Fold this sequence. Notes:
mainly alpha, two-stranded antiparallel sheet, FAD-SLDH_ssu, TAT_signal, Twin-arginine translocation pathway signal
Amino acid sequence: MNNDTNPYARRSGDAAEPMGGGLTRRQWLQRSLALTALGLAGSLTLRALAESPSAAPLDAFMTLSEALTGKSGLNRAVGERLLRALQKGSFELGDGLPKLAGALAANTLTPDQEALSLRILEAWYLGVVDNVVITYEEALMFGVVSDTLVIRSYCPNKPGFWADKPTERQA
């Protein structure tokens, strides 16, 4: 069957196949996220953080996290747990946070700084660091669908409720 007429046939550029410039979708998405983070680089708070390397690590992490995610008022307790988990991992966060803030503000990320910013984003959105679940219900990925879906932990209704049309929740 010709791929032009088969709607289920794989098209070039799917999942693992490189896109036009030799990038996979995942690489393209990661770079797009990094560029989005760079778009937030003009933030005065990032510049202030870069100029005060003596800032408390948690404060620096929360400032960077809010700039990277584009969300204000992130849960500080979750941030503290994520920071501790990231510090145990393969990335050295000590004085790297003010340097990362400076690079974001100046729009000059190195590959290592880009990787670190992606790790911070991954930690917040998935709630997982180095294959260890740090938070489940507070992971930012659930915010996107919170108006319709219930975070799965316990059954939210009677048996067989999933067969009924979902009711929209007010966020």
